[in-house]
Amino acid sequence: MQTTGSNNEGEPVMEINTTPLIDVMLVLLIMIITTIPPQSHAVKLDLPQNSNTPPPPVDPVKNKIVILANGSILWNGTPVDQQQLRQYLDASQQLTPLPELHLQPEPNAPYGLVDEVLAVTKFAKVEKMGFVGNEQYGNF
Q1: Which is nearest to 126 in space by CA: 78, 58, 72, 56?
Q2: Which of 132, 66, 120 is CA-nearest to residue 93?
Q3: How many CA atoms lie within 13 A of 112 on its CB side?
Q4: Is pLDDT above 70 for 108?
Q5: Alpha carbons 104 and 100: distance in angstroms, whole number
Q6: Which is deepest, 8, 80, 92, 93, by most CB within 10 Å?
Q7: CA-to-CA distance for 24 and 33, rounded, in angstroms?
Q8: Could you give the CA distance from residue 54 to residue 65 in angstroms, rounded to a whole number?
Q9: Ramachandran region of residue 90, left (φ > 0), alpha (ψ -120 to 50) or beta?
Q10: How far apart are alpha carbons 13 and 92 in whole angstroms?
Q11: Are 89 and 120 in contact (CB under 8 A)?
Q12: Which residues, including other chains, have CB under 8 Å from residue 109's CB and lie 6 or more apart?
């Protein structure tokens, strides 16, 4: 133990020499800084894939489903299948306020397809729906 010159009884000094401790801490700090990999400031983005035809937009006011006599379904004038129809209906039901859905089957459209489209609208929980073009059925 180190003693001071003024201490005649040979008692230990109560002060701690912090210089070696500071030296060790500085060496550890330098080692940690050099071993940390440099951080890249890149932001990962999930960009949409390029598709040939953009999906028809969901109109926030009203959307129209037309069922043709040849068995095809049109969403706002663009041909869709029942799976795409369900996706567009789900997207339209997320909007506030809810847009209206106009359903217009042609007079010679297959009844089974009209029934399937009505089932899809029911499963999508469409609340604001109406039939348009009923005057075409007056001559039948």
Answers
A1: 58
A2: 120
A3: 2
A4: yes
A5: 13
A6: 92
A7: 14
A8: 18
A9: alpha
A10: 81
A11: yes
A12: 67, 68, 69, 71
